[in-house]
Amino acid sequence: MEKPILGGVEAGGTKVVCVVGRGPDELLAEERIPTTTPAETLASVVDFFRATEAQHGRCTAFGIASFGPLDLDPRSPTWGCLRQTPKPGWERTDLVTPLRKAFGTPVAIDTDVNGAGLAEVLWGAGRGAGCLVYFTVGTGIGGGAIVNGEPLHGLSHPEMGHIRVPYYRGDETFKGTCPFHGDCVEGLASGSAILARWGTPAESLPADHPAWELLGFYLAHLCLSATMLFSPHIIVMGGGVMKSQPLLPAVRRWTQRLLAGYVQLSTLEGSLERYIVPPALGDRAGVLGALALAARAH
Amino acid sequence: MEKPILGGVEAGGTKVVCVVGRGPDELLAEERIPTTTPAETLASVVDFFRATEAQHGRCTAFGIASFGPLDLDPRSPTWGCLRQTPKPGWERTDLVTPLRKAFGTPVAIDTDVNGAGLAEVLWGAGRGAGCLVYFTVGTGIGGGAIVNGEPLHGLSHPEMGHIRVPYYRGDETFKGTCPFHGDCVEGLASGSAILARWGTPAESLPADHPAWELLGFYLAHLCLSATMLFSPHIIVMGGGVMKSQPLLPAVRRWTQRLLAGYVQLSTLEGSLERYIVPPALGDRAGVLGALALAARAH
Questions:
Q1: Mutation test of the interface with chain B: which of A186, A228, A235, choosing the one with the most B Cβ atoms within 10 A?
Q2: C-beta atoms of A258 and B181 within 8 A
Q3: Most B-contacting residue of A172, A230, A274 (CB-CB within 10 A), to test interface
C-alpha cells in the first residue's frame, strides 16, 4: 500500500517552510514563504498546498510546527492559536483553521521543538527512544520532550530556555537579555545574548574565544536539569548557535563535570558523545517535525 | 465484580510499610517493618503477605515503591535491584524476586516518588492530570513525574533534587551537603542541609526564622524548572520538611516571582494555590503509591 501524502508547515518568525511528501525520503514539493502578515502568509500556505494538490493529490493530514507560545489545550476554544507573542500582528492568530477550512483534513499543531523532537524519534538521532529531549539554541532557546512517542504537554507546552541557573564565574555583571527574566538560560546563552555580549553572532566568534566555555557552562546546566528531571535516553541539540564547532564539545564537557558521576550508566560515562548529540536530520529537523506531526494526525 | 486484592510495599531507609487492600479506601491489613538487613527485612515482608493471604486471599499483584537509585530498565538483567546506594548492605539488593518467588504474581517496582505521584493522579490532588510532578522534601529531595498516566523513565529514573540553581543572596558560603554535588538543590534545601545549617530539624525552626525564605527560594527554583521543562498541570510537594507551615507559602511566593508572568495561564496567576499543593493523600501518598503501582501491574 502506498504511504499517504502528508503536508508539513514549519512556521518561523522570518519564514514559513511548507512541504508535501510521504516521509523524510519522499518529499514531493517544498516552498519557503516569508513571514509577513498573518493573512498574507497563511493565504500563501494554502495556495502552495492547492498547487501541489493539483499535481500530487490532496494531503491526508497536515502538521504545523510553529514558533510560540501556542495554545495547545485541546479543550480550549483558542486551540491552535498563538498566545501573546512579541511578533507584531501575530498575537492570537489561528494557525489551524485556514488549512482545515481549505482542505477539510485533520490538522495537528505543536511547537517547533516538539515537532523536531518527534522527527528525531521517528527518523533521526533518537529512533525509538522512549524519552528524548530536543533543545534549539538560536535567537532564543527552546526545548521539547517526546515521552513514549508523544510530545509532552500539560497546562501549556514546555518553555525550557527559561530556567534559572548559577552564573558562570565572572559573568555576574551581565544582566541577561530575556525581557521577562533577564538572566534565565535564554537571557544568558541565546543568540541574542551572544550579540549583546560580544556584538557579533556566534558564527563570527573564533574557536579560541572564551565565549565557548561560558556558553557551554550555561547550556550544560540545561542538559543537567533535563537529565535530572526527565532521565531521557538522549538529548538532541539543534539550532543555529549549536552549529559553531567548539560549542557541543564544551556543553558535553561541562555536563559531565556537573553530573559528577552521580548517575552511573554507561551512556553517561566518557565524553557523552552518544548522549548529547546534534540533530541527525540537521536543518531538516524543523520541517520534518511538521511532517512528523502530520503523520501522527493521520 | 469485586475489586482485586493488591499488595503494596513502601520501602524506605528506616522502615518498610506493607499494605493489603482493594484501593485507598479499602485497606485490609498494614504493617511497619524496620529496615535492617536486606535478607531479614525482605523475609518479614514475605511473612506479612503470607499471613494476610491466609486471612484475605492471595494478592493478584504487588507494587513496590522504593528508595533508590533503582535499576528500572526492563531490558536489564538487574531490573528491580537497587543500584549503588549509601544504605549499607543494600547495594544491588533484588527487591522484586522474593515476592515473585513466594507468590508467583506480577510485581511492579518504581521509585517512591513516582509511586506517590501515581497515587496522587489516581486518587489524590492531581486526579486525571495528564502531567503531574511530585516532589518530596525530607532528608533528601526527590521528584517523580506522571505523564499520561505513566511514571516517567528513560535511561534511568529522574533524580530531580540534583539540579543546580542560583545561590540565595548571602548564602554563597554554604557549600551544601550533597556528597556528589555539594550545592545542588538537595545539598542546599533538604532536611540534611537544614540540620547542617541550623543544627536543628525543620520542625524546630520558628515561623519567623529566615530559613523559610531561603528554603522557599531554592525549592521554588525546583518548581520553576519543573514548570519550564514539563509544563505540568500540577506540582505536589510532600515529605517531612514540607509539613512546616511557613514553607509551602514561601515556595509559592518565590515561584510566582521567578515565573515573572511569563506563562500566562489562569492556574499560574495569583498565589499558585491550585498549582503547587500538598499531597491530598498526606502521609499515605507513599504506601498508596505502592498500591497504585500494584493496580497498574494488575
A1: A228
A2: yes
A3: A230
> B71 and B78 in contact (C-beta within 8 Å)?
yes
CA atoms within 13 A on the CB side of A279: 30
Tell me the torsion sign for CA atoms A181, A168, B133, A147: positive
What value of ipTM does the predicted structure carry?
Answer: 0.95
Q: How far apart are CA A254 and CA A271, in angstroms?
A: 10
Cell numbers for A294: 502530520
What are the pLDDT digits (tens) for A253-276? 999 999 988 776 777 877 899 999
Residue among A219, A230, A210, A279 at smallest CA distance from A253: A219
Q: Residue A191 and residue B6: Cα distance in Å, rounded? A: 54
Q: Which of B71, B229, B234, B263 has the most A C-beta neighbours within 10 Å, making it the best mutation to test the interface with A?
A: B229
CA A67 – CA B80 distance, rounded (Å): 41
**B255 to chain A nearest CA, in Å?**
11
Query: C-alpha cell of A162?
Result: 527559561
Cβ <8 Å between A156 and B131: no
How far apart are the C-alpha atoms of B186 and B191, rounded to whole Å? 9
Give the span between the Cα atoms of A132 and B171, in whole angstroms: 35
**DSSP assignment letter at B283:** G
Residues sharing a CB contact under 8 Å with residue B293, sequence separation 6 or more, in sequence order: B8, B63, B64, B65, B108, B109, B110, B115, B118
Please state the pTM of the whole predicted model. 0.96
Q: In this structure, which amino acid lies at residue B250?
A: A
What residues of A are in contact with residue B145 (Cβ under 8 Å)? Answer: 229-230
pLDDT score of A1: 63
Collect the ranges in chain B with pLDDT lower than 70: 1, 264
Sequence-distant (6+) residues with CB within 8 A of A14 are A34, A35
A84 interaction partners in chain B (CB closer than 8 Å): 264
Per-position DSSP letters for B123-142, written without gaps between them: HSTTTT-SEEEEEEESSSEE
Contact B1, B55 (CB under 8 A): no
Residue identified by cell 491552535 is: A80
The model's pLDDT over B126-171, given as tens digits with 9 standing for 90+, comes to: 999 999 999 999 999 999 999 999 999 999 999 999 999 999 999 9
Please give the Cα distance from B186 to B183 (Å, whole number): 7
Cβ distance B154 to A231 less than 8 Å, yes or no, reads: yes
pLDDT at A189: 98
Whether residue B225 and residue A262 make contact (CB cut-off 8 A), yes or no, is no
Q: Do A153 and B164 touch (CB under 8 A)?
A: no
Q: By the 8 A CB rule, do A219 and A137 touch?
A: yes
Q: Give every residue of chain A whose pLDDT is below 50, as ranges.
A: none
Contact A153 B130 (CB under 8 A): yes
Angle at which helices B211-230 and A211-230 cross, to 10°: 90
